[in-house]
Amino acid sequence: MKRLSFIILVGVLVVFAACTGKKQQDTAISSITYANVEIPDFNADSAYAYVKRQCDFGSRVPESKAHKECGDYLVSFFKQFADTVIEQNFKTKLYNGKEVNGRNIIISFNLASTDRTLFAAHWDSRAWADNDPDEKNHKTPIIGANDGASGVGVLMEMARCLKQKPTSLGIDMVLFDVEDQGCPEWDETDIEDQSDWCLGAQFWSKNPHIPFYQAKYGILLDMVGYSNPLFTKESQSMYYASSIMNKVWQIAKDKGYGNMFSDELTGGVMDDHVWVNRYAKIPMIDIVQYDPMGSFFPYWHTLKDDINCISKNTLKAVGEVCLVAIYSAS
Asked: Which CATH class is domain 2-327?
């Protein structure tokens, strides 16, 4: 995942500014007090263990041994709790023209319901620590505890909760592959539209697991485990799905997590939700770590993005917010 270029970002913000007529509708989403919504207990210890288990496989770079073993583990895990688990295998090309095999994993609950909600995260980890302070590490794969495993870990614990307390809604989860293999900082290849990122999301959005698949809305989880979290209202999310973002942020406030979920409007990022919005036409927001000092969090795309930067409290906050979004509508 990468920040959008300045030119693209300005265009998004201009359009967003022109759409402020939606504001009245967005601020009157619901009179419900979300703190009172009954949800299953989200076990932060379990979520943390799921993040660690992914990291224990090593760097989940596409086509690596760790990638295959972790993918097999995830498929086996979700089959314990979901109605169906579909593996979507695909071929795609990286920024340098190299063809790689990808593997999206789609998990579904309550298939009979046509009222569906989509959750997503990416499960691969970056092949290059190109933001590491030590230049010697720039071509070393990262573990991706926060950038990848954290979002998947939250979805894994949510799956257990959904099994424990089924909902009347249809819930789908997509684990996107080949998200984090965009052009490294040390390479001079110029991909102006940044379409070299989020390749699994691009494939799924053009080729959903069910023809003409639709969901009322979607929530993407990316870097949701950092010990000092800040989730802001990212501009792409606000442009495509401001009412959803405002609802989710209100849930966070009602649950007592307003210190993590800030109303600050910040610049756009190139993440999986962009392609889900553009190609699948599903309004999807991104709950993503923001760092006002630059990058996304201090260990983004470095070798220190390991289990030591993961907080159980952050995982629990994000998981509970997502569960309230589900159960308040069921």
From this structure: alpha beta
